[in-house]
Amino acid sequence: MPVVKLYLAIGLIVFAGLMSVGVVMRAAQGASLISLGPDLFYQLMTLHGAGMVGTTGLAALAVNWYFLSRYVRLNPRIFLATLILSLLAVAMIVGAIVIGRFAAAWTFLYPLPANSLGQWSTGAALFFVGGLLVLGVAFLLVYLDMGLAIVRRYGSIARALGLPMLFGREPVDPAHPPTVVVSAVVLIVNVLGIAVGAVVLVMTMLHLVYPALAPDALLMKNLIFFFGHVFVNATIYSGVIAVYEILPLYARRPWGVSRLFLAAWLAVTLMVLAVYPHHLLMDFALPAWMAVMGQVMSYASGIPVLAVTVFGGLLLIYRSGIRWDAASSLLVLGLFGWAAGIVPAVIDGMIRVNLVMHNTLWVPGHFHFYLVLGVLPMVLGFASYLCSNGEQGRTGRLGVSVFAVGGILLSLSFLVSGALSVPRRFAVHDEAWQWLADLGALSGGLVLIGTLMIALPILVRLPRAQLTGAGT
């Protein structure tokens, strides 16, 4: 499947590059090895954030598309068109940052893109926001193909989601693919998320061109965080499909669908759309019921994940005689990262904690936990299994260990910094904070080394790898 190979190759190379950017930023905050001016630091922060979110989204999309193509007929040309549009979007975003010096972070919080105090031009802001819009169009294009293919095969998105089985109108079919259920969830939530993102991106562009057109700032913030929260979570859901598909092959046991499984993913569908106000708990102008909803949903949102995927994964591998290699180890590490990453997220979703923690490095700690120890191992495990059947020798197995140790230390360096009230988004750190930044740079370097130890053998084998699937 040549298009999947392209997604994997580009994703692995870009991951390594963006990790290097992250290491440089943490080293600059430590002030012992590297010195960066604040303007350059915030450009790198914008590049790292936007690049990691977008690249992770595309890599997880490749996981989703590859396995969904086993059950429905997808169009590889549309999948390729999505990649081409995404590369165009990347060129626009990178150009806006590197040439135009745009540095308003990947969240582009209104009205910051239009108020640069001379740091970047209106054109640079338009290119950055326009690049995000093109990327959203690229995702919607492939989602349209996936949605049509699911409807042609199963009759409706509701049937793909298993709702007739969940509510007793049809008997439960254990052979109903978990991949189809999760794909239906991703389609529902991420089409809504990207549509909302498109609205706020267009409104931002209009404000850049016509400054007199000034939307409500609280509305814009709600739209931005709904879009960002849903997109990142949908990325995780796409990545976990690799766990559902590959781990049963190692354990030699099926991952069957049950009413509990279907109920959990329906709950996830509803919760991920309602939980985003936990990003806005300090916006006192927000209606109180939204803050309460954000806090309650924060508590509840981890339950379906722990009850079904993580617990189900543990049951699957318990006394199965599973073969431990690079792929299986990475997939189980991804389950750990997803489950454990919920804990600091739920803590930050408590209003009294959020009052003092949300603008600290605690928040980067919990989403690095999700992405570095959750989604990225799932993508790497997927690539390892497809390209080498998980057999990457001693180097690959050692790479997994280095990656895991580095990822845990990196996440802890952020979380401990947050617990000590080290602010987030500060280019320059006080001397008392610098040892934690140095620890972050060192652990980020371990993550980069581990990634290269895993990814380089994959990249060497990738051109000759014989990938199997309905889309080949």
Explain the overall architecture.
The chain has 472 residues and is mainly alpha-helical. It has helices at 2-30, 38-68, 76-98, 122-154, 157-160, 163-166, 178-209, 217-251, 259-274, 288-317, 326-348, 351-357, 362-388, 393-419, 434-461. The protein is globular, with a radius of gyration of 21 Å. It starts with a helix and ends in an 11-residue tail after the last helix. The model has no long low-confidence stretch (mean pLDDT 92).
Question: Whole-number radius of gyration?
Answer: 21 Å
Low-confidence stretches: none
Oligomer: single chain
**Average pLDDT taken over every residue:** 92
Q: What form results from the Cα inertia axes? A: globular
DSSP E strands, number: 0
* End-to-end gap: 5 Å
Helix content, binned percent: over 70%
- Structural class, by secondary structure, is mainly alpha
Biggest sheet overview: none
Précis, in short:
The chain is mainly alpha-helical and 472 residues long.
Structural key phrases:
single chain, 472 residues, mainly alpha, 74% helix
Give the topology.
Elements: H1 2-30, H2 38-68, H3 76-98, H4 122-154, H5 157-160, H6 163-166, H7 178-209, H8 217-251, H9 259-274, H10 288-317, H11 326-348, H12 351-357, H13 362-388, H14 393-419, H15 434-461
Helix pairs in contact: 1-2, 1-15, 2-3, 2-8, 2-13, 3-4, 4-7, 7-8, 7-9, 8-10, 8-11, 8-13, 9-10, 10-11, 11-13, 11-14, 13-14, 13-15, 14-15
